[in-house]
Amino acid sequence: MAYQFDLSVIIKYLPLFLKGVFLTVEISFLAILIGLPVGILAAVARTSRFKILNLVGAVYVEVFRNTPLLIQIFIIFFGLPGIGIKLSPYISGLTALVLYVGAYNTEVIRAGLEAVPSGQIEAAKSLGLTGVQTFFHIILPQTFRISLPALGNNWVALVKNSSLVSVIGMVELTWVTFDLNALTFRSFELFGAATIFYLILIFILINIQAFVEKRFLYKT
Amino acid sequence: MFDFDVIIKNLPYLLSGVKFTLALACLVIILGTFLGMILGLSKLSKNFLIRYPANLIVEITRDTPIIMQMFFIFFGLPALGIRLTTFPSAAIAMSLFAAGNTAEIIRGAIDSLPTGQFDAAKSLGMNYLQMMIYVIIPQALRRMIPPAMGLFTTLIKDTSLAAIIGAFELTRAGQEIIERTFRSLEIYLVVAAIYFIICYPLSYYTRKVEKQRVTGF
Fold first, then answer.
1. Residue B91 scores a pLDDT above 80
2. Which residue of A has its CA nearest to B59?
3. In this structure, are residues B58 and B43 in contact, taking their beta carbons and an 8 Å threshold?
4. 8 Å CB contact between A141 and A103
5. Between chains, do B76 and A75 touch, taking CB under 8 Å as contact?
6. Which DSSP string corresponds to A123-175?
7. What phi, psi does B6 have (nearest 5°)?
8. Which residue has the higher pLDDT, B203 or A217?
9. Nearest CB to B75: which of A70, A83, A187?
10. How confident is the model at residue B216 (pLDDT cuts 50, 70, 90)?
11. Closest partner residue to A62 among B59, B164, B200, by Cβ?
């Protein structure tokens, strides 16, 4: 039995696909946005002089980096109701993605914080800046510049990982594809199309990142 | 509340899943490294007929979710008459992903070597093969180890995705127990702990190797 290729199915269901793409973009964008302060906070904890903060940061990073994201999503969505915390698929998925990318961001930002020359901090002190001022005006901007390429890698991984929230029923690109597949059985065309959608998304993200890098990185 | 009995009773079943997780991870790492080496060297080729297809494969495998690639192989390929069961589908999809990433690591490591090394090898009269075997690869290998080990950790974690298409491994074992017992929190926490036990030594060692390289190369 020969399989007849039928691309009309893609065109017919394009609006549904685009809805899925939109939710993928939305949840990825939110996770990127919220994951950044999470990473900064945890990185500050990791580099702090207080042993307890240090330990909390280390445990957070190690636990979330060394367990699969899929299991983290399952624990948040299926496991937490067992102790009375019920979250919607959207919130569960987003929380898991934020915590996961946050842990990866932490390591990147920590390396960035450590790479800021100590002369910068001494100069800030001698100018009479307070600790908070030094952090926000001197250290953080330089850290961001140093960390940006590695953060970009995390973001690309995040867009790909956002496909996993489909398993708890979020109607994003992967879920839409899977659903259409059950409806039409046009697996080859549908998964091919979804692959191309992801490629386009990642391509756009990489280019935005390259643009930002060029704009801010080499302008010292 | 928290039920420890269910954990102890089902631990053997989870451990039988671990066997498949480790088998899948090993298979993927071996196949992925082998394919990745071919792809990585093709990417560095001067012949564009070799370089372009290699680039395309690497980009597609790196820039799409593994779960999509698994779906494509498991649900999509039967359309072409290629029917695979769950475990081989997962293994092939993940090996391709591993190969794409390994290729990038190899290319990155070789590109990062000073051009003087290539020139020196050539001026000593070495041919391409000799240059690669005696001069380039031994040096590039040292630079590949930390990112490759990071990739292996990721791959072990990502074997959990095979459960989505129904291949039996640790995550699927956990799901089956939950279908029977309804103790999601306990079982998933134990599953997470097992993954942690497997992955943590690897990522700890990776960091150690990275530090060594910074200080002692």
1. yes
2. A199
3. yes
4. no
5. no
6. HHHHTT--HHHIIIIIIHHHHHHHHHHHHHHHHHHHHHHGGGGGGGT--SHHH
7. -65, -30
8. B203
9. A187
10. very low
11. B200
Q: What is the mean pLDDT of residues A131-137?
A: 91
- Which residue matches tokens 């039988």? B16
Q: Do the beta carbons of residue A71 and residue B192 sit within 8 Å? A: yes
DSSP A186: -
| Domains, chain B | 4-216 (1.10.3720.10)
Please write the tens of the pLDDT for every residue from A80-111: 998 889 999 999 999 999 999 999 999 999 99
Tell me which architecture the domain covering A8-217 has in CATH: Orthogonal Bundle (1.10)
Q: Which residue of A has its CA nearest to B63?
A: A199
User: Is any Cβ of chain B less than 8 angstroms from the Cβ of A191?
Assistant: yes
Angle at which helices A140-161 and A89-115 pack, to 10 degrees? Answer: 140
A135: left (phi over 0), alpha (psi -120 to 50) or beta: alpha
Cα B161 from Cα A165, distance rounded (Å): 12
Residue of chain B whose Cα is closest to the Cα of A165: B67
The shortest C-alpha distance from A127 to chain B (Å) reads 33
CB B36, CB B98: distance < 8 Å: yes
- Single-letter residue type at B35: L
pLDDT of residue B213: 64
Ranges of each domain in chain A: 8-217
Q: What is the pLDDT of residues A164-219, one digit of tens each?
A: 999 998 899 999 999 998 898 888 889 989 999 999 999 999 999 888 888 876 55
Mutation target among A80, A179, A187, A191 for the B interface, most CBs of B within 10 A? A191
Choose among A65, A83, A198: nearest Cβ to B65.
A198
